[in-house]
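PROTEIN–LIGAND DATA SHEET

This sheet pairs a single protein chain with one bound small molecule, adenosine-5'-triphosphate, given as SMILES. Inputs appear in the order they were entered. The predicted three-dimensional arrangement of chain and ligand is reported afterwards as a token string under its own label.
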Amino acid sequence: MTTDREQVLEGRELLQLYAAPTGPTQALRGVDVTVTGGRISAITGPSGSGKSTLLAVLALRERPAGGELRHRGRLVSSLTRHQLQRLRRREIGWVAQRPTHSLFPQLDARGQIEQMARLRGVRVDADAALAEVELTARATARPAVLSGGEQQRLAVAAAGVGAPALLIADEPTAELDDDSAALVLRLLRSRADQGTAVVLATHDARAVAAADTVLRLRQGVLSGEHDAGQIRTTTIDGLGRLQLPEEALPLFPDGRVIVTVVDGHVELHHPEDPK
Ligand SMILES: Nc1ncnc2c1ncn2[C@@H]1O[C@H](COP(=O)(O)OP(=O)(O)OP(=O)(O)O)[C@@H](O)[C@H]1O
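PREDICTION REPORTED AS:
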């Protein structure tokens, strides 16, 4: 378990590249991110903007091609393979976009919870964990015979066993009806209340509404961070270029803007509405 409001991960200038037939794809292009215990952070952005890539890097499943990632102050790149494996097993819950990818195919629902507890070295009441996501009646069912919604609820419950330091979930509510989505979001909130840093990638307004912080990715760049519905930060690069939040773009449909520095702050106006 982690302490509430502890900085669990800090990423600076994170880069990720993938090989593609037309040359390398830059999936992350200099992302700064801080992940804090006790909070739910939602990463949003269009398809292909780098959400899953960022999650994989934060979950220590992929090494970034560049930049610096620290786990509780310690450089992740300095960890041995064994240390990384142990960290992932003990402290990081992972829910893949396809929930079956984060479940053991041969274990029933209760077995998933028990196995996760063994791996994490924690004791857990498996029946209570299943009840939390309304899977009591499915305790002896394996993932293959569960519905998509049941698989998702089970994957989130298993990932949250023992309130790990980090719980990372890729689109955990995407395929869920309102009742199942509410169960999943309630479980995520409950882990956050226990100190877990919860990070999700999502397109789902229900999940965004449940988050404490919303990070918006566009083309591998973090274009804004919103806290409880308010914009707090956006990125200014080394050349002084600023990326506006997507919702501001319709204000400047022709891409032209008048910039004035007034009394220590900056105002942006449409050229035909210079005020
Ligand atoms: N393993 C990979 N090999 C090659 N290219 C990849 C790989 N994974 C991701 N990419 C590319 O990197 C970019 C970011 O992909 P990513 O899956 O992180 O986006 P996303 O925001 O999660 O998208 P979606 O919402 O569709 O899941 C895309 O251009 C994608 O095609």
